[in-house]
Amino acid sequence: MPIPRYPESRPLQLDDKQLLDPIFARLQPRLSEFAFANLYLFRLAHDYSLTMVGNALVLLGRGYGSEPYFLPPLTGDVEGALARLFAEGLTLYGADEPFVNNYLRNKGMEITEDRDNFDYLYLRRELAELPGNRFHRKKNRISYFTGRHSYSVNFYEERYLDGCLELLAEWRRINVDAESSSVAFEADATGEALRMTADLGLEGVVVLVEEKVKAFALGERLNSETSVCHFEKGDPFLDGIYQLVDREFSRLLFTGCTYINREQDLGMMNLRGSKLSYHPVEMVKKFRARRLEK
Length: 294
Description:
By secondary structure, this protein is α+β, with helices and mostly antiparallel strands. Helices cover 36% and strands 26% of the residues.
């Protein structure tokens, strides 16, 4: 099914940061999709475009299986835009619980929880300090790493770009057997993020071992009390380095935030287990919705 192209439609572009950032600041979104860097870096993966539906600003896209969808309207007559988009047979993706309750309940809609795309929300201080017995294994893994390697942790800067790209290339090589469209798009998006941190307002940390980049993490502020970690990569042969870079991202960046959103698991069971092992304080639910056939 093609995505409807309205006269005002156009692909998402870098200059749209100036348009969308103030809107997101007003909306204070809790879902990781509503951070400009996330949208921009996955613009090709999801064929994102901006359009006006009536007087409502709407993002159109498609999933990894090429199914078209639209994200909740950002401005204007939300109900009018929903009626028109649903009438054209499109599915809504990325609605949170308040949006569902305000606009979709009792409206003849099929509403489904999208568990694979729930965001994992954590207390930043817990990830930074790993307190108590619940995080005993994480602390042990970090101690294992730090006891065996001379390392340093630094804020990401352009001088670390080549080293991060080398690590990313190795990550992709190791995952070649599991290569899928989502893995390929993630690798491409991560590389672009590393090159465009200043343009996109991203911040990050790197872990150096013998002066070589062995892990990095990049993120941005999502709302006034939450940061979001978009990308995290580490040398899989260095036990404990993922736990270390996760802790250092949480400890050093966005220290004025209460929470960290670490995005979804995409239904990958290993990733789900890892994210759950950090004890999220909330699973931020996302819903899909479509109009029931009469």
